[in-house]
Amino acid sequence: MKNKWLKSILFIFVLILGIIFYMSNAFTLSSKEKKGSKVKKIKPTPTVPVKLVGIYVKNAKLKPDQLSVIPPKKTEVYKEKITPLTAVECGRCHSYHFNIIKKSGGKHQLECTFCHKEFHAYNPIKKNWKELMPKCKTCHLLFHGSKFSDCMKCHYNPHAPKLPMKITAEFAKICGDCHPKEMDETVKYHSMHTDIGCTYCHAKTHGCIPSCLDCHKPHIAGQTVEECFKCHAPHSPLNIPPFAKDTSNKVCSACHTTEFGKISTTKSKHGKVACVQCHPKHKYIPACTECHPQPHSEAMLKKFPDCLQCHMDVHNLPVKIGGK
Ligand code: HEC
Ligand code: HEC
Ligand code: HEC
Ligand code: HEC
Ligand code: HEC
Ligand code: HEC
Ligand code: HEC
Ligand code: HEC
Ligand code: HEC
Ligand code: HEC
Ligand code: HEC
Ligand code: HEC
Q: Which ligand is nearest to the CA of 233?
């Protein structure tokens, strides 16, 4: 009786051992299979799930004792078509990119997938980042010709290509390629502005415009930047155009104190004549006869051709005391 009892305990013990042995063997087998060459071939492309199913179905043809798991019934989801994510859907995760396009994308406000045909396939082992990224040239060709082929050197943000470009040393060399008018002007009318170069003034970003008053004091107190442009073009500042008729004598006073002093205090009628009436262009000296055609007899003027021989100082004509 006691023997029978012992025998059945031994039997159960051996049975449990057997089951454990069988199970552990099965597990190692299945993990070997998982590491098997078939799985290794699978590339990490977006179509991974479909390929896996392909293998899975193939495996289903295997005999049951070659499988460690019981395959479920074939699912129907793979019959459906994938619709591409919209920009908003991508933006749920990539809010930075979505927002910069929204704010400053300009004409790049396109569906993300219009440019990103392939994505979420970056693999650091393959080092395929560059390959994955869209290329400007695909859509724009060499927009500015072959000289400017590295687009992102200037258009540094692909999602907002019109964002003000930073002025780099390389950029500075080629202003004249796109702005020949300004470049020619600085060369034709040489001044210190020619020597300092474009980016001394257009310094921060492409298209930024400085104020003259950033670097210069006005000639007279209260003179505005708008007034500067009446006499100075920024790219040819010494090529001063004819003065505006309403130019005040005070502007001239900044540099011509003597003449200004005389005109301001003279008793002659020339005190009522504005500097720019006689000097309509800078450095122009008028003839008296432009305004006084026939003041005296011809005989007298033949003898004394220079009016100032008698009239002395144009800015302070001698007049009779209490003169007309
Ligand atoms: C007009 C084409 C265009 C559109 C539209 C566009 N991208 Fe891009 N994107 C690019 C280019 C070009 C690059 C590669 C830049 C580079 O080479 O460094 C890029 C790079 C990226 C990168 C990786 C580099 C980084 O900045 O992190 C992400 C992520 C990205 N885009 C997400 C998006 C998302 C999300 C959208 C839509 C909301 C979008 N893109 C729309 C052209 C585009
Ligand atoms: C569920 C969140 C999520 C959505 C939706 C999503 N992405 Fe991503 N994306 C990520 C993550 C996470 C990364 C990797 C980390 C990173 O680079 O920021 C990534 C990386 C990227 C990259 C760079 C790396 C690569 O492998 O391409 C691009 C480009 C990109 N996504 C584009 C897109 C586009 C285009 C869409 C919409 C069609 C989109 N993503 C939708 C989460 C998302
Ligand atoms: C998949 C195509 C595609 C790619 C890639 C692409 N673009 Fe564009 N880009 C466009 C389209 C489309 C427009 C709008 C054209 C139009 O309406 O005239 C545009 C417009 C522009 C504009 C004018 C923007 C505006 O708001 O006026 C610039 C600048 C530009 N792209 C530069 C770039 C640069 C730089 C890259 C690379 C970083 C790039 N693009 C990549 C398709 C693309
Ligand atoms: C040296 C700097 C520089 C390089 C490099 C450069 N660009 Fe530009 N690009 C500019 C400037 C400056 C403008 C005009 C200013 C603006 O539009 O804000 C411009 C304008 C454009 C425009 C027209 C924008 C509009 O107003 O319609 C497109 C498109 C463009 N670039 C595409 C490209 C592409 C593609 C490349 C590379 C093949 C490239 N650029 C390389 C500086 C550059
Ligand atoms: C690839 C061509 C290109 C190059 C290179 C280029 N520009 Fe421009 N630039 C343009 C175009 C096109 C515009 C007109 C842009 C617009 O209307 O958005 C412009 C506009 C400007 C403006 C006027 C902005 C305004 O408000 O009227 C200034 C200033 C300027 N550029 C200076 C420079 C300087 C300085 C350089 C050299 C560092 C330079 N640019 C290089 C194409 C270029
Ligand atoms: C001394 C400073 C200075 C220098 C140097 C300079 N600029 Fe300018 N530039 C200006 C100012 C100021 C304006 C604004 C003119 C206006 O508002 O009418 C301007 C305007 C411009 C414009 C816009 C055109 C317009 O009529 O609005 C362009 C393009 C430009 N500059 C290009 C250049 C280039 C290219 C160079 C080098 C060859 C250069 N600049 C050198 C100060 C300068
Ligand atoms: C970023 C600084 C800067 C800006 C902005 C600037 N200038 Fe100048 N300018 C200079 C420098 C530097 C000189 C060289 C002489 C000096 O050191 O004063 C100069 C010289 C001049 C000269 C004498 C030129 C010569 O060859 O003798 C005139 C005239 C002049 N500037 C007018 C202007 C006017 C008008 C403006 C606005 C349209 C302007 N400048 C904007 C820096 C600037
Ligand atoms: C009514 C005309 C007129 C106006 C307005 C004017 N200028 Fe002048 N500026 C001149 C004349 C004339 C010269 C002398 C040019 C020469 O030496 O041949 C001159 C010379 C200069 C010079 C170089 C000599 C010096 O004094 O350093 C600078 C800089 C200058 N102007 C800046 C300005 C600025 C800035 C403004 C606006 C605030 C301005 N100008 C407004 C007529 C004008
Ligand atoms: C920023 C200083 C400056 C301002 C402002 C200025 N000038 Fe001059 N002007 C000069 C310089 C410098 C000369 C050259 C002097 C020389 O060659 O000896 C000159 C020369 C002249 C000459 C010719 C002198 C000669 O010997 O042939 C006349 C005329 C003249 N200026 C008139 C004016 C008038 C009118 C104004 C006001 C509308 C004016 N200037 C404003 C600096 C200035
Ligand atoms: C009625 C006409 C007239 C008026 C008004 C006038 N000028 Fe003159 N200016 C002349 C004539 C004519 C000369 C030549 C004098 C000579 O040949 O000695 C001259 C010469 C000059 C010269 C050269 C230096 C000199 O004394 O020979 C300067 C500078 C000058 N004027 C500045 C001014 C300024 C500044 C004003 C206003 C404050 C002014 N002028 C007003 C007619 C005028
Ligand atoms: C831009 C024109 C202009 C020029 C140039 C000019 N004047 Fe006059 N002149 C006048 C005007 C206007 C009067 C005032 C006439 C009146 O009220 O009857 C005047 C008055 C005079 C008078 C009378 C003075 C008085 O106070 O009664 C004399 C003398 C005179 N001019 C001499 C000259 C001489 C000499 C020159 C050359 C060196 C000259 N003018 C150049 C415009 C000019
Ligand atoms: C030989 C000396 C002499 C010469 C040369 C001379 N003038 Fe006179 N001018 C006079 C005298 C004297 C008066 C009368 C003074 C007075 O009435 O106060 C006068 C008067 C004038 C008057 C004022 C007339 C009026 O009705 O009040 C003008 C204008 C004038 N001269 C212009 C000129 C001009 C222009 C020239 C040169 C083409 C010139 N003068 C040459 C001596 C001269």
A: 7
